[in-house]
C-alpha cells in the first residue's frame, strides 16, 4: 500500500470582474467575455509600440476557485509523501494569453 500524500498548488489568474478595470467584450468571437486593457506602463516596451490603443487581454472568465483544474495563467504544484516527507512530483505550468481589441 502506498504512503498517504498531500498535493499543494498555487495558481495565478486574471479575475473575470474587477470593478473599474475589466471590460466586457461587446462584439465578435469573444462576445460576452471580459478583458483587461494593456497597462499604460507596458506601452513603453518597444514590442508594444505598434499595438492598437484598444488592445487588451482576456481574463480567465472566473472568480476564486479551490479547484486545481480551474483556468489559470500560471500554476505551481507539488505532491509530498506524508511518511517520508519527500516531494514525489512537482510541476510548473503556464497558459497563453489572448490579445483582443476592446472595442471591436
Task: Sketch the topology as an H/E string, one letter per element.
Answer: EEEEEEE
- Quick one: how many beta strands? 7
Largest β sheet strand count, sense and barrel closure: 4 strands, antiparallel
**Pairing-aware structural class of the strands and helices?**
mainly beta
Give the C-alpha Rg.
Answer: 18 Å
Tell me the overall shape: elongated
Distance, first to last CA: 58 Å
Low-confidence stretches: none
Strand order of the main beta sheet, please? 2-3-4-7
Query: How much strand?
Result: 35-45%
Q: Helix tally?
A: 0
Give your account of this protein's structure.
- The protein has strands at residues 5-12, 23-24, 34-37, 55-58, 74-81, 87-94, 99-101.
- The strands form two sheets. A four-stranded antiparallel beta sheet has the order 2-3-4-7, with no helix packed on it.
- The chain has one domain (5-101).
- 0% of the residues lie in helices and 36% in strands.
- The model has no long low-confidence stretch (mean pLDDT 95).
- It has 104 residues and is an all-beta fold.
Amino acid at each position: 500500500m502506498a504512503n498517504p500524500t498531500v498535493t499543494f498548488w498555487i495558481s495565478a489568474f486574471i479575475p473575470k470582474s474587477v470593478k473599474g478595470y475589466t471590460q466586457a467584450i461587446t462584439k465578435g468571437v469573444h462576445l460576452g467575455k471580459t478583458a483587461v486593457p494593456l497597462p499604460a506602463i507596458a506601452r513603453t516596451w518597444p514590442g508594444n509600440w505598434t499595438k492598437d490603443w484598444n488592445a487588451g487581454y482576456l481574463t480567465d472568465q472566473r472568480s476564486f476557485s479551490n479547484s486545481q483544474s480551474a483556468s489559470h495563467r500560471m500554476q505551481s504544484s507539488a505532491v509530498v509523501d506524508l511518511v517520508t516527507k519527500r516531494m514525489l512530483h512537482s510541476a510548473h505550468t503556464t497558459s497563453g494569453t489572448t490579445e483582443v481589441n476592446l472595442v471591436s
